[in-house]
Amino acid sequence: MARIRPSGGYRDLRSFQIATIIYDTTYWFCERFLDSRSRMSDQMVQAARSGRQNIAEGSRAAATSSQTELRLVNVARSSLEELLLDYEDFLRQRHLRKWGPDDREALAVRRVGQQHPENPSDQVELSDEQRYALYAKWLDHEDSAIRANAMLCLINQANYLLDKQINALEAQFIEDGGYSEQLAAARLAERNRKKEDHPPDPIPPCPKCGKAMVLRTAQKGKSAGKQFWGCSGYPDCKGLVDI
Question: By residue range, what is the domain housing residue 185?
Fold first, then answer.
């Protein structure tokens, strides 16, 4: 029997693919530009990890709980929003320029994402390393400001995709219900199918008078508790048929 709700497949999600780049880059960024013992370094790495892992965990939870899936995707979205603020803080506190939305560099980073469709069936199969290489000239730059600004662009892309994912999950939940509702519907459909495959035995006519029989249960004697067909004309007619 096929599973009622599909799950997994998160590696094909564009949001997960970008979140993987964000996690790896944040790890290397903190290693290079922040004190590894600082609280900010630890929080940034954990926020980046949470964004990626919760997308995956939510996808796996889809099999049994649409509410859990929705909650975990929202956690991923919140974690990446926290990370966005950390990169903005890094730039502001060091008096480094933050790219505007229409800056040439920001447009160039966004253009890479626009060249890769969101629909998995339309994507060219790339490895994690190949996806990272598309952004490497910004993410591996010696200038921390360029790395941080490129990360802001990528996090905004991931958040945009997660917002669309959350909206789609909410609409699906409203239309189809959660796992319990779908399970109940599937159970009812299976019962109806079995009834169609095994229709009840037809009511036999009375072998004595020809009237319709009714289903009765023996109340006493050696057959007590057993069902049988008894004539609807009882007590005038005592015809019966064993089941």
Answer: 10-189
